[in-house]
Amino acid sequence: MFPAFPNAPHWTVPDHWQAIDLLSDLHLCPALPLTFEAFARHLQTTDADAVLVLGDLFEVWIGDDQAGQPFDHDCLTALGRVSHRLWVGLMVGNRDFLLGDQALAIAGAHRLHDPTVLHAFGASWLLTHGDALCTADLEYQAFRREVRSPAWQQAFLSRPHQDRAAVAGRIRAESQARKSVLPDSGDWADVSAEAAQHWLGSSGSTTMLHGHTHRPGRHDLGQGRVREVLSDWDLDDARPRAEVLRLTAGGVERRPPAGWRYASA
């Protein structure tokens, strides 16, 4: 069983654009200073016309009052400083689905609906974070339906910041504990090929671009359809990783963040 394809907006980019950079799952937080440094450097030095973040820019977001925290404010203003020359788009993910209009205003960013059909360079691309399509993870899907409801969000955001932080911490701890006892890298945590096929067919696109799973790569779905999975970012790890998916008239290219050089082993 897969989710019905929602009423996705169609977005056609300007004809003069030459390149679009897509990023996902940076999970920015104070514990990842090198990851933030690479993100900020990429924004300052990329020659793309637009930077689109397909969810989970932040490790957690518990309301736009979080923008008052120094690190989170720096993340948003890093986007704001380049928004005069780049078209910046933000899609929420499973960690930062509470990003609101105040945060987007600081970032100078446009909100990207999940999913969005992107028309660029003579092709159509389906953009999504990807978590809605991990249909085998029934427990997560039930949780997702609960926390994405307006009633839940209104009640949660009405609580004091300290209470919200405690709830978020408890949810993350429970999630990590659950993952530790489940089969490693099972299909339950991946996007359903059937669901991806359904969404692509419904959107009139041949290529889906998404993050969430932290399993970068290209998947041939058959019938001329493809799923391109973005990398997560963690340049503070002993085995650093970060990847930008660039769209041009030539197709899809995977590259490191602009200006970044991995340290030699």
List keywords for this structure.
Purple Acid Phosphatase, chain A, domain 2; 20% strand; six-stranded mixed beta sheet; 7 helices; 265 residues; alpha/beta
Structural class: alpha/beta
What is the third-level CATH name, the topology? Purple Acid Phosphatase, chain A, domain 2
Q: List the quaternary state of the chains.
A: single chain
How much is the radius of gyration in Å? Answer: 18 Å
For the largest beta-sheet, the strand count, sense and barrel status come to: 6 strands, mixed
Categorize the overall geometry. Answer: globular
Q: What strand line-up does the widest sheet have?
A: 1-6-7-8-10-9
The CATH homologous superfamily name equals Metallo-dependent phosphatases
- Helix count? 7
Low-confidence stretches: none
What is the correct CATH architecture?
4-Layer Sandwich
Helix content: 25-40%
Total number of β-strand segments?
A: 12
Measured by DSSP, the beta-strand proportion falls in: 15-25%
Total tally of structural domains = 1
For the record, give the distance between the C-alpha atoms at the N and C termini, rounded to a whole number.
45 Å
- What is the CATH C level class, in words? Alpha Beta
Summarize the structure.
The chain has helices at residues 33-45, 70-80, 101-107, 138-147, 150-157, 161-181, 193-203; strands spanning 10-12, 20-23, 50-54, 87-91, 110-111, 116-120, 123-127, 207-210, 217-222, 225-229, 244-248, 251-255. It is α/β, with parallel strands linked by helices and 265 residues long.
